[in-house]
Specification:
This protein is α/β, with parallel strands linked by helices.
C-alpha cells in the first residue's frame, strides 16, 4: 500500500488543479431541486441524480428517512420527497404508549397538493445466521406461516418441527433471535402490511398482546417482545445478523443489503408452491399484479388513500416466479389542480426539471435497478407514475403516459409487451414445495441426489446465497464470487479484495463467508483508476489552453524579431 501514496498525492494535486481551472470557467446554469426522505431509495436516487446532471438538473437529496422526509414536505421545505409509505391518515397502532406520547405515529396532514409516483421496487428479504458443523447454512426455505410464527414469537427454536418439515433437515436446538427495526421504517411498514393482509388474526393478536391494540393496516414501528433485538437502521440490522454474536438471528431487510454482501436469505414459499428469492426478476414479476388506487380502480381523488399502492394481488400471485413480499416506494411530488395548493417554493422551471428527472428514473433509470440492488418498476406502475407527472406544474416529460413511447424500461418493449413475464427465468423443479433438500433435476423432475449433500451446498436446489443471480430451469443457480453457496471444495474469493478466503471455522465462522461489507472506495485499484482519470481529465482541460498560450507567445516573439 505504501507504493500507492505518491499516486494518491498526485491524484489529489491534479484534481485540485483541475478544480481551480474549471472554477474559473463559467458553468452552465442548472435547475436545483431539494429533497429528503427514504434511506432505502437513497443509493438509487444518488445514481439517477448523477445521470441527469448533464441535462442541467441538480438534485440535492438527503436520505434522512421516510418519516422525516414527509415532515420536510409538510412544512414546505422540499421540492419533492421520497417515502416508502404514504402519509398516515390514521394513528400508527404499532407505537407503544410512550412513543405515542412523544408524538410519533400520529396522523399526518400535509397542507400542499401532492401525487405519489412509484420509484424503486424491491423485496423484503430475511437474512439469517445459521452454522451447522462449522459450515454456514445457505439454503434455508420457509413458508409464510413459519416466518409469521417466528416474528410473533410462536416459533422460538430452530429445531421447531415446522422448520424441519419445510427445510427438509433438522437444525440445531438453538434459540431464534428475531431482529427488528427500532426506528420508524418503511421496511417495517412493508413487512407488517404483508402480515396484516395474509395472516391478520395472528398479527393482530400479537400486536394486541404487546401494545394493547391491533397495529392496523401497517405500522412503521415494530412492537418488539421476547428475544427480539431492535436495531436502528437497515444497515445495523444487517450488521447484527452477520456478526458472530448474531448466530441464530433472523432479520427483515431490503434485499440490497444481503445482495451487496453475498449473505444468504430465506427462500419464501409463494402461492404457486415454489420457494422463491427476492431477485430483481422475481420482484418485477410479482409487481405486475400491483394496483394504484384511483388509477386502476374507482378510488376518488378525495379519498385519503388516493394514489396509494394496493399490493393484495402481489401477495396472492400464482406465477411460480413471484416473490410474495414485494413492494415499491414513492416519490411525493407537487400536484397542480388539487384541493391543496402547490408549495410556494415550487416553480414551473423546477417542474420542468423534476418531470424530466422522473421520466429518466421510470424509463432508462430502471435499467440500473438490478445492479443497485433493486428491481425494475414494471409497466403498470410506470404508466401510473407518468400519469401523475402530467400534474406537475411546468411538466416537460418527453414520455407519453398512455403509449409510453420513448420509455426504455427493461420490463416491456416498444409494443407494450411485458418482456419481464416472457424473459424472467422459471424456478427449478428443486424449488417446488416437497422437493428433497438434497436435490438434482433429472428429465425435468426433482429427485434426491445419489450422495448426501451438505447443508451449506445450496447449489443443488437452485442456489440460495444472498448474491445469487436467480434460479434457472436447470436447477443449478449461479452464486456470485465468494457467496456462501460456493462449493466448499473450492477456494472462495472475497468479492471486495479479490483475495482467497480461508475455510474458517469456529462457532461464529463457517466456510466460504465473504468479508463484511465496507466502503470499497479505498481499494488500491480504485486509487489507480482515480489517478488515471485525473490525468486524463487534466490532459483534456489543462493541456489545450497551455499549448495555445505557448503558441501565442512564440508567434509574438517571432513578430518582435
Amino acid at each position: 500500500m505504501t507504493g500507492l501514496v505518491p499516486l494518491r498525492r498526485a491524484a489529489a494535486l491534479l484534481l485540485a488543479a483541475l478544480t481551480l481551472l474549471t472554477a474559473a470557467a463559467p458553468a452552465q446554469a442548472a435547475t436545483a431541486l431539494n429533497a429528503d426522505g427514504s434511506s432505502w431509495a437513497g443509493p438509487a436516487i444518488d445514481q439517477w441524480r448523477q445521470d441527469v446532471a448533464p441535462q442541467g438538473i441538480q438534485i440535492n437529496f438527503n436520505p434522512i428517512g421516510s418519516a422525516a422526509g414527509r415532515n420536510q414536505w409538510a412544512i414546505g421545505q422540499d421540492d419533492f420527497t421520497a417515502s416508502d409509505v404514504p402519509f398516515r391518515s390514521k394513528p400508527d397502532g404499532g407505537v407503544s404508549g410512550g412513543g405515542a406520547g412523544s408524538g410519533a405515529g400520529q396522523p399526518e396532514n400535509p397542507v400542499y397538493g401532492y401525487s405519489y409516483v412509484p420509484i424503486t421496487a424491491g423485496g423484503t428479504a430475511f437474512m439469517y445466521n445459521l452454522v451447522v458443523g462449522g459450515k454456514r447454512v445457505t439454503d434455508l426455505r420457509l413458508s409464510p406461516d413459519t416466518l409469521v410464527g417466528i416474528f410473533t414469537n410462536r416459533i422460538t427454536s430452530w429445531d421447531d418441527p415446522a422448520i424441519t418439515r419445510e427445510y427438509g433437515r433438522a437444525l440445531p436446538k438453538l434459540p431464534i433471535t428475531p431482529v427488528v427495526r427500532s426506528d420508524g421504517s418503511g421496511a417495517t411498514a412493508q413487512f407488517t402490511r404483508w402480515m396484516e393482509h395474509t395472516h391478520r388474526s395472528v398479527w393482530d393478536a400479537y400486536c394486541t398482546r404487546v401494545n394493547g391494540v391491533a397495529c392496523g393496516d401497517y405500522t412503521e414501528f415494530f412492537p418488539p417482545s421476547g428475544r427480539m433485538v431492535a436495531q436502528n437502521g437497515s444497515d445495523v440490522v444487517a450488521g447484527y445478523v452477520q456478526s458472530p454474536t448474531g448466530l441464530g438471528a433472523i432479520g427483515y431487510d431490503e434485499y440490497a443489503f444481503a445482495k451487496r454482501s453475498n449473505w444468504p436469505v430465506v427462500k419464501v414459499l409463494n402461492p404457486a408452491g415454489y420457494y422463491s428469492l427476492p431477485t430483481a426478476s422475481n420482484v418485477a414479476v410479482a409487481l405486475t399484479a400491483a394496483r394504484i388506487k384511483g388509477v386502476d380502480d374507482s378510488t376518488s381523488p378525495n379519498d385519503p388513500d388516493f394514489l396509494q399502492q394496493n399490493l393484495d394481488g402481489v401477495y396472492t400471485m400464482t406465477d411460480p416466479r413471484s416473490y410474495p413480499v414485494s413492494s415499491y416506494s414513492y416519490l411525493i411530488v407537487p400536484r397542480a389542480g388539487a384541493s391543496r395548493p402547490v408549495p410556494p417554493r415550487f416553480t414551473d422551471a423546477k417542474g420542468n426539471a423534476l418531470s424530466r428527472f422522473i421520466s429518466h428514473v421510470l424509463c432508462a433509470g430502471q435499467g440500473e435497478a438490478d445492479d443497485l440492488g433493486y428491481s425494475p418498476i414494471p409497466r403498470n406502475l410506470v404508466r401510473g407514475g407518468m400519469l401523475q407527472v402530467r400534474h406537475i406544474p411546468g411538466n416537460a416529460s418527453p414520455v407519453d403516459p398512455d403509449s409510453l413511447r420513448n420509455c426504455a424500461n427493461p420490463t416491456f418493449n416498444a409494443a407494450g409487451e411485458l418482456t419481464v413475464l416472457k424473459n424472467a427465468p422459471q424456478p427449478s423443479p428443486c424449488d417446488r414445495q416437497g422437493a428433497p433438500l438434497d436435490c438434482v433435476v433429472k428429465n425435468g423432475t426433482a429427485v434426491a441426489a445419489n450422495a448426501g449433500g451438505s447443508s451449506s451446498s445450496g447449489g443443488s436446489n437452485g442456489g440460495s446465497a444472498g448474491g445469487a443471480s436467480g434460479t434457472g430451469g436447470t436447477g443449478t443457480g449461479t452464486a456470485a464470487p465468494g457467496a456462501a453457496g460456493t462449493d466448499p471444495g473450492q477456494a472462495a474469493i472475497d468479492p471486495q479484495t479479490g483475495e482467497p478466503l480461508g475455510t474458517g471455522g469456529g462457532s461464529g465462522g463457517g466456510a466460504a463467508v465473504p468479508a463484511s461489507v465496507v466502503a470499497i472506495g479505498g481499494r488500491p485499484e480504485d486509487w489507480v483508476l482515480s489517478t488515471l482519470t485525473a490525468l486524463e481529465l487534466l490532459g483534456v482541460v489543462l493541456v489545450p489552453p497551455l499549448l495555445g498560450h505557448w503558441l501565442r507567445r512564440r508567434r509574438a516573439a517571432g513578430g518582435a524579431r
